[in-house]
Amino acid sequence: MKKFLLALTMVAGMMAINAQTTIWSDDFDDLDVSDWMLYDEDGDGQLWYPALLTGGDTPILTSVSWSGFPLTPDNWAVSPAIDLSGATGAELKWFVFASDPLYNLENYGVYVATENTVEAFMTAGELFTEFDLPSELTERTLDVSAFDGQTIYVAFRHYNVSDQFRIGLDNISVTADGGGEPVEYCDIITLDCAVEKIDGVTFAGIENLNTGCGTAETNDFTNMVANVELGGTYDMILDIEADPSFPDDNAFFFIDWNQNGTLDDAGEVYEVVMHTGTSGQYTVSVTVPEDAELGETRLRVGIAYNSGPAFEPIACPTVDNVTYGEYEDYTVNVSEGGEPVEYCEIITLDCAVEKIDGVTFAGIENLNTGCGTAETNDFTNMVANVELGGTYDMILDIEADPSFPDDNAFFFIDWNQNGTLDDAGEVYEVVMHTGTSGQYTVSVTVPQDAEVGETRLRVGIAYNSGPDFEPIACPTVNNVTYGEYEDYTVNVSQLGVGDVNNASFALYPNPVKDAFTVKLSSEFDAAKVAVTVTDLSGKTVKTFGASDSYNVTDLSKGVYVVTITDGKNTETKKIVKK
After folding, report:
1. Can you give the pLDDT at residue 495?
2. Cα gap 221→253, rounded to integer Å
3. Which of 360-364, 379-383, 395-399, 507-511 has the least mean pLDDT?
4. For residues 203 and 225, what is the distance between their CA atoms, to the nearest angstrom?
5. Neighbours of 146 (CB within 10 A)
6. Which segments of 116-165 are extended strands (E)?
7. Which single residue of 176, 314, 558, 573 could bond 52 by disulfide (Cβ 3.0 to 4.6 Å)?
8. Is residue 298 pLDDT above 80, yes or no?
9. Which of 535, 571, 495, 570 is nearest to 166 (CA)?
10. β 20-26/407-413 pair status
11. Distance set, CA 301 to CA 12, 271, 287, 343, 406 (Å)
């Protein structure tokens, strides 16, 4: 989980000034490394990736030197840009371990540079290296004050090793001296919560369930962070126990949007349920103010018994104002988010002759669509899942006019997500100047520098006489008359859809929440297929026979390997369980 802090890390209660400012950190709690750059310099298809340790309690960033057979990795994991403007005494910290104490001679190096390229890191030189790693996560520190005042990238390189097992990293951070005073909050106190208590808090990535009755110390959950964006709306789900004999329990929470240390300013107080004796889950929708301060701030959740209709939520409990109930503290990280990318619209064309009959691409299979309108051809709810560097077949089924053989089929993918569909490298010609209907296939390789996340795929066929015709991304009544356009979505990820080896099946969606589907190539005998899911230690966690879909709802979050065999052919892929 990323933490971009604008000031010193907030501390619980009225504590002294911290001498260290956390400039940037990542603890990988969300198993999301989409803001890191991952380089596979040895070209074996293996990268650094997020995973959960056996038992599912600790998220790490990991790279392997053995995966059923020896590997010789040269894998780079490069952090997002870290701004050290105004910083002094910058220090890099991380935790490292080898997952098997009998195979712990993993070798890695740490690099820092002001540009995010392998060449820049090699030029800057290795600042730290070790190969005999501890078997438990152990902290390391590195002085990077030479880069004070600059914007840097930190790289971890797993290399010069083979046939060990796995290296893991966690809690990577860059800190610096100085900074202003942290925001200070009134303390929570230990209350009598034998009856009134908080059993669960779920909010924007926080999922703290079955907490039961705690103390002021055990209810400091400020290490749990909810990530929200300005203007975004999120559900707060609060699970409470109330007293049916004295139905005057009140549940509420506070978020210090202006980060001034006062939790109950206007717009910061949320009543969940008031004057109740009914236990259970309650949900309140929270919209982040557009003028909220960016960075980390305090979330305080409370339940309190207090008789009388005039009771109002109390942000700072004391022995004089609250006796029965419970309070818990959390952290909320506010970011700007991004404006949605806007695309030129498709229009309704005359597609009585020239039309798109089918689109198949990386999990999308939209067949026999026939002639549609601008409205019916909006298929952006259909998502193709691809990964950086992966190669996928686009199969386009078209109808063309043999009487006027000048039909052109093409598509666009906005890899840089700038809203322009026909930048260099984003235009694909399927077949040009044809009158022949049928299926056409084009191989698509995802650029290594494509933006991660969802983007637009636009498929088109257009009649246009003349040898100089070029694919038109934005059709208008002036440039296209006959033909058809369709819009889809492409989701670009760094891990999951790509091969563990040169697989001949597609697996989607990936990441998966509930169930995944497998699309087999003709090499497999579908009736004889068996599917096995293993964790990264090689332990089998699921087995299936041939099916339309495979349910993995009960698996913990993490990375797994899916193996498919029909007794003759065997292939594997990685999958991320959300």
Report:
1. 46
2. 14
3. 507-511
4. 9
5. 10
6. 126-130, 138-143, 151-158
7. 558
8. yes
9. 535
10. unpaired
11. 14, 10, 17, 42, 66
pLDDT, one tens digit per residue, over 443-476 is 999 998 888 778 999 999 999 867 788 999 999 9
How far is 377 from 361, CA to CA, in rounded Å? 16
CB 386 within 8 A of CB 491: yes
Encoded tokens for 31: 């198993």
- The answer to whether the CB of 469 falls within 8 A of the CB of 543 is no
Mind listing the pLDDT tens digit for each residue in 264-281?
Answer: 999 999 999 999 999 999
Task: State the Cα–Cα distance between residues 23 and 150, nearest whole angstrom.
Answer: 12
How large is the average pLDDT for residues 309-325?
Answer: 90
Q: Which of 243, 245, 289, 247 is nearest to 268 (CA)?
A: 289
Q: Which residues of 420-437 are buried (b: 16+ CB within 10 A; e: fewer)?
A: ebbeeebebebbeebeeb
- What is the C-alpha separation between 262 and 300, in angstroms, rounded? 11
Helix, strand or coil, per DSSP, at residue 467: coil
Residue type (1 letter), 262 = T
DSSP for residue 226: E
- All residues at 6 or more sequence positions from 470 whose CB lies less than 8 Å from its CB, including other chains: none
Residues in the chain, overall count: 578
pLDDT for 179: 44
Spatial separation of the C-alpha atoms in residues 227 and 238, rounded to whole Å:
17
Residue type (1 letter), 541:
V
Answer whether residue 186 shows pLDDT above 50: yes
| Nearest of 557, 444, 553, 452 to residue 495 by alpha carbon | 452
Backbone angles phi and psi of 343, in degrees to 5: -120, 150
DSSP 186: P
Q: Is 330 helix (H, G, I), strand (E, B) or coil?
A: strand
553 Cβ contact partners less than 8 Å away, ≥ 6 residues apart: 513, 514, 515
Helix H, strand E, coil C: the string for 55-89 is CCCCEEEEEECECCCECCCCEEEECCCEECCCCEE
pLDDT on residue 223: 83
pLDDT band (50, 70, 90) for residue 337: low
pLDDT in tens, 29-77: 888 888 899 999 999 989 999 988 765 668 899 999 998 899 999 999 9
For 358, the 3-state DSSP assignment is: strand
What values do phi and psi take at 118, rounded to 5?
Answer: -60, -40
pLDDT of residue 73: 96
Tell me the one-letter amino acid at 494. Answer: Q
Does residue 446 contact residue 388 with C-beta atoms inside 8 Å? Answer: yes
DSSP bridge pairs for 20: 177
Question: In one letter, which amino acid is 572?
Answer: T
User: What distance in Å separates the CA atoms of residue 227 and residue 375, rounded to the nearest whole number?
Assistant: 35
Contacts of 334 (CB under 8 A, 6+ apart): 228, 229, 230, 257, 288, 292, 293, 294, 295, 296, 297
Residue 118, SS3? helix
What is the mean predicted confidence (pLDDT) over 344-357? 94
Contact 263, 256 (CB under 8 A): yes
Beta bridge partners of 201: 208, 238
Alpha-carbon distance of 211 to 217, in angstroms, equals 13
Residue type, 102: L
Phi-psi region of 37 (alpha: psi -120 to 50; beta: other; left: phi over 0): beta
Phi, psi of 121 (to 5 degrees): -70, -40
